[in-house]
Amino acid sequence: MALNPANVEPRIVVDPSVRFGKPVIRGTRICVDEIVGLLASGLEKEAVAEEFAITLEDVHAALDYAAKSVASERRFVE
Fold first, then answer.
1. Cβ of 37: how many Cβ atoms within 10 Å?
2. pLDDT greater than 90 at residue 70
3. Cβ contacts of 22 within 8 Å, gap of 6 or more
4. What CA–CA distance (Å, rounded) separates 62 from 75?
5. CA-atom Rg of the chain in angstroms
6. Is this prediction's pTM over 0.90?
């Protein structure tokens, strides 16, 4: 049975057949974590967009997705 990709956000897709189901920019194989990692290393948003040939809106969508993912995590402290 074929699995359908999940539209997580308007620009973010999770598809088990693309990059092992990691969240990617729609229509690409560019993972959200790759974008966030480059931004964390100090690369400017414009440079990241240029590096991957994506839009600034895609970069912002990756950041938004990452922020929402972290915000939804639950930690239990003993």
1. 13
2. no
3. 14, 31, 32, 33
4. 23
5. 14
6. no
Task: Tell me the β-bridge partners of 13.
Answer: 7, 24
Type of residue numbered 50: E
Distance CA 49, CA 47 (A): 5
- Mind listing the pLDDT tens digit for each residue in 20-36? 999 999 999 999 999 99
* β strands within 1-78, DSSP E: 6-9, 12-14, 24-25
Q: What is residue 28's three-state secondary structure?
A: coil
- What b-and-e string marks burial along 14-23, b requiring 16 or more CB atoms within 10 Å of the CB? bbeeebeeeb
- The strand order across the sheet containing 12-14 reads 6-9, 12-14, 24-25
